Amino acid sequence: MRIRTPPLSTLRLFDAAGRHLSFTRAAAELNVTPSAVSHGIVGLEGALGVKLFLREAGKLSLTREGADYLTYVSEALSLIIVGTRRLPTPHSGRTIAISSAPTVASRWLLPQLYEFRSRYPRIAITMDTSHRQVGFPVDGFDFAIRMSRIPVATGHWTRLFGEWLVPVCSPGYREAVADSEGGIDLARATTLHVNSLSEDWQAWLDAAGAAEIPPNGTMHFDTIQLSLEAAAAGLGVSLGRTSLMGRELRDGTLVKVGKAVPAATSYWLVSSDRVEHDQDLRSFKDWLLAKAEAFASDQAEPSSAAVHTSVG
Fold it and tell me: Quick one: average pLDDT of 118-143?
């Protein structure tokens, strides 16, 4: 049996009333009268044959069915809004929306974008670097760049490049904790950790065959960027990722002080379903994959210095 879709106008009334749990506040948001909201909801309930709200003296609440239905209605209206905003206007071109982890966005992606913008000046770029999962297409993103061992969740995953993990610190800090053999003793050093990473110091210790670091003298950060900046400032030793710290290694603000080991994680480009059917999105994807391929071919196993993790 064919299900008749309720009018969009009544769904907007239901969405507003469900969010506010008030016909009065919903009416103010939509610039209608509370009576219009109430009558619209009654009509929607009649058309659906389901009670959506419990009306008590001075209190409005959703029924179980109403709360469940609100989830779908709110998401559907959100999709309509996102899709409408993404339509080109006579005064604007195409916009590509990207979600990316903050450090790879600032240290790898941004330096590349000048070339793309030069080739496609009518295509605008928006970028989000918040730590959150992206839902395609609900959140309105076309692409996401993520660090992961394997493809997960939704979207089409394409590997960009891998990287090496290597301890780094400032030249001055290296001298402060240097040993007689030219390496450093991690047991004497402050280790800098990144809370958001699944692969941090313990992964490096296991791969390098190094001893455990005593649980003292540590600092913790929420991004790789902050950890590297702290290391450059002489605050300790960060577990650097070679793909993200080329600038500091070239200018000497960071130096490698340990064995380099390959990371289990890689960077991936996650694409929404609509990419394959949109020429602008396809152009961006092809361009970015070509840049990643060239970048990956330049990555070689880094040389490293000796590191001692014994105490004393």
Answer: 77
